[in-house]
Amino acid sequence: MKKFTFTLTVILIFLFNQGFSQLATSAHDFTNGDAWNTNTSNKMCGVCHTPHNANTSVAEAPLWNHALSAVATYTLYGTGSATLDATINQPSSVSKLCLACHDGTVALDNGPLSNATMIGTVSASSNVGTDLSGDHPISFTYNDALATADGGLHPTTTTVSGMGGMINADMLFGAGNDQMECSSCHDVHNSANIAGLLLKTNTNSELCLTCHDK
Ligand code: HEC
Ligand code: HEC
Ligand code: HEC
Ligand code: HEC
Predict the structure, then answer these.
(1) For residue 167, how many C-alpha atoms fall within 13 Å in the half-sphere facing its CB?
(2) Which-ligand-closest: CA of 98?
(3) pLDDT by residue for the chain (214 residues), tens digit each?
(4) Using a 6 Å cutoff on CB, does residue 188 contact ligand 2?
(5) Whose CA is nearest to atom 37 of ligand 3?
(6) Which of 178, 181, 203 has the alpha carbon at shortest distance from 192?
(7) pTM over 0.90
(8) Ligand 3 lined by 171 (C-beta under 6 Å)
(9) In which element (H, E) is residue 141 found?
(10) 58-105, pLDDT tens digit by residue?
(11) Ligand 4: which atom is nearest the Cα of residue 172?
């Protein structure tokens, strides 16, 4: 009986996690009727993805269904740092997909296939804006050479991410798995169900210490 109760509890916990983690009920669940959201179509994926006629203007934009920001020049991280080794570029790749909503210049409901009814732009607290000089740098090459040059970073090809593989495979983007982007820290789908849509927990700065050797 004890064993049965234990097994049942394990199964229930499993089912509970299946039902309530991930995208549903996260900040990216656009079906839950927040103040800015009168999405009546109940399409959870449709605001960002579409099976047809996708926006293909950005590399690494899987079946993308959202207009991109017209902002061409963001203010980049760097001027306030004397210790930065990386060369920071204008936002590219998946970061452009995030900024399509999070730089605050594009309406939330804005896809080739408009299939939701969302109001306005992201709220002030989620608006990173177009001045990224006070934000963790993104869209730059982070590889073993940078780690060596910096001295305070873990090499990407030989350091475990804590998520199954190495940093380069699990956290970096681009053809060479060496581009740092918004999604190097965030999980847009909330797969691991961690507050702040984080890729992994940042308790005791675990997320930061995955890459930074401090
Ligand atoms: C808020 C926007 C957003 C929503 C909502 C969203 N996605 Fe995504 N999705 C993205 C972005 C951005 C990427 C690019 C990869 C990344 O950033 O991690 C992506 C990548 C993907 C990929 C390819 C990479 C992977 O993770 O396998 C698949 C498949 C996918 N999404 C499926 C879905 C499905 C299914 C839904 C609905 C249940 C959904 N997405 C909802 C933004 C979204
Ligand atoms: C279709 C528009 C859209 C796209 C694309 C999008 N987001 Fe969001 N995101 C939102 C909205 C809307 C919210 C909730 C805003 C609010 O209420 O403050 C949000 C909230 C968030 C939050 C706050 C989570 C929380 O729990 O407080 C994070 C972090 C975030 N997004 C990261 C990202 C990242 C990283 C990407 C790209 C990989 C991305 N978003 C792509 C619309 C978007
Ligand atoms: C180096 C890691 C890292 C990178 C890169 C990163 N973020 Fe975050 N972000 C965080 C952490 C950590 C938080 C705080 C999460 C929490 O505790 O709720 C956060 C919070 C947020 C929030 C919630 C509002 C706020 O300001 O606290 C949004 C929205 C957000 N990030 C969007 C983005 C976008 C868009 C990008 C790319 C332009 C990005 N992030 C890049 C680590 C990162
Ligand atoms: C996926 C890897 C990764 C994660 C996770 C990460 N960083 Fe970084 N971070 C980097 C890289 C690479 C640089 C560029 C360092 C350089 O070129 O000097 C950087 C730059 C920085 C800088 C600026 C350094 C300078 O010299 O100007 C600070 C500060 C920083 N990160 C703090 C954090 C914090 C705090 C967190 C956790 C919220 C975090 N990082 C998470 C990879 C990461």
Answers:
(1) 24
(2) 2
(3) 445 444 544 444 444 444 445 888 888 988 766 655 666 666 788 888 888 888 898 888 999 988 899 999 999 999 889 999 999 999 999 999 999 999 999 988 776 655 556 778 888 999 999 999 999 999 999 999 999 999 999 999 999 999 999 999 999 999 999 999 999 999 999 999 999 999 999 999 999 999 999 9
(4) yes
(5) 182
(6) 203
(7) yes
(8) no
(9) strand 140-141
(10) 888 999 988 899 999 999 999 889 999 999 999 999 999 999 999 999
(11) 1
Residues in a beta bridge with 55: 64
Q: Contact 39/46 with Cβ under 8 angstroms?
A: no
CA of 49 to the centre of ligand 1 (A): 7
Residue nearest to ligand 2 atom 20, measured at CA: 27
Measured in Å, residue 21 CA sits from the centre of ligand 2 at: 16
Of 84, 90, 125, 128, best ligand 3 pocket probe by most atoms within 8 Å of the beta carbon: 128
State which amino acid sits at residue 175.
A
Residue-level length of the chain: 214
Ligand 4 nearest-atom number relative to CA 83: 26
Q: Which atom of ligand 1 is nearest to the CA of 94?
A: 17
Closest CA to 188 of 178, 179, 177, 199: 199
Task: Report the phi/psi class of residue 34: left, alpha or beta, with left for phi > 0 and alpha for psi in -120 to 50.
Answer: beta
Residue 201 near residue 163 (C-beta atoms within 8 A): no
Gap from CA of 54 to ligand 2 centroid (Å): 20
DSSP assigned state of 112: S
